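Researcher: We're teaching a course module on how sequence relates to structure. For the next exercise, students receive a sequence and then see the predicted structure as tokens, so they can try to spot secondary structure elements on their own. Here is the exercise chain.
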Amino acid sequence: MKRGVREALLKKRNSITPEEKKKKESAIRKRLFASVDFKKAKSILFYASFKSEVDTIKCIQHALKLKKMIALPGVDREKKELKLYKIKDISKLESGYMGIMEPRAAKSREKGLKNIDVAIVPGAGFDKNGNRIGYGFGYYDKLLSKSEKPVTTIALAFEEQIVSKVPNESHDVKIDKIITEKRVINCKKSL
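Model: And here is the predicted structure for the students to work with:
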């Protein structure tokens, strides 16, 4: 069931024209930068956007200019989990798992989720209750379920990615907020 929903959502997201995508991404960035969560956060976990995802590179650049500590994930293929690394410059990212840009692994820059205030989380689709459908590997669910302290989770998504109900399982971690080009959905209030 998840696979079919994921495929349909990715097809919708992929159908957004480049011009429309730019407009929507600009509105999403404005909402993110205006949010209390972003303003208060001293440290943010981002991901390097891939294919038709909401562009995160401009968000990362802006956050770095504001002197926020930024971490990006790298896939540890042996352990099948994400490791987080502090970055200072996006030009230092390199092609990693599935061609997604990620920081070079370095123990000296490794951060735990306990060092993160806000986590920007990717996904194929979401519902207003905070259920998220990822890409089927469970990396973010595994990472977020191990959090030692509360971390605010935010998804950046196009309206096309919001559905009435995402199929979820007991191990799926819910998102706190979703920011689209039209609104901010507080998922905790929706419950």
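Model: If you want an answer key for the exercise: The longest helix spans residues 18-34. The longest strand covers residues 69-76.
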